[in-house]
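re the bet — no i am not wrong, look at it urself. input seq straight from the record:
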Amino acid sequence: MNISFAWLGGLVVVAGAVSAPIHRGTAHAPASPCAADSNYQRLAFWIGDWEVVDSTGAHYARQNVRAALDDCAITAEWTGRVGDRGLNVSAFDRQTGEWRQMYASNQVPGPSGVSLRRSDPAYDGPGVRFIPLIEPPADKLTRSRVTIVPMTDHRVMQLFEDSKDGGKTWYVLFKAEHRPRTAER
């Protein structure tokens, strides 16, 4: 008897597939562990399609913020009035217990590269405050931070601040209010 082992292997695969149970419409994707973990959901209030206005109420940009990777990360795409665009990815890092953020842009206010940030461990307010991932040298007194907080009426504030005295005092660079974008905008 001369049987090809390749043919026999194929027969075993087919037999295994035929005998496997068939699930039609009864299988449910397992819930994401990130969706149930409040650490990962700390910025969930930011998810949405936003019109961004400056402190005078003037239209400044649009921003689309989405949950990504089964609710384990958030992406935010920024489109400004004059061709300025940005993209950020934020996620909770279980190993460090901090949020991490990578922001890339073509302008802010001039061409910039990439900003790497982490959540500020000293901040205990609502939302998340981001500071540089790597602290500046002690002799460099300029500091920056970005705070994203929920507001009433399903709005969000993003506050950009700088310090020139090593973080003793802060001044507002830019205060952006995110308002839900309506269909006509």
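see?? Residues 1-25 have pLDDT under 50 and may be disordered. told u. also Residues 44-180 form a domain with the Lipocalin fold (CATH 2.40.128). so pay up
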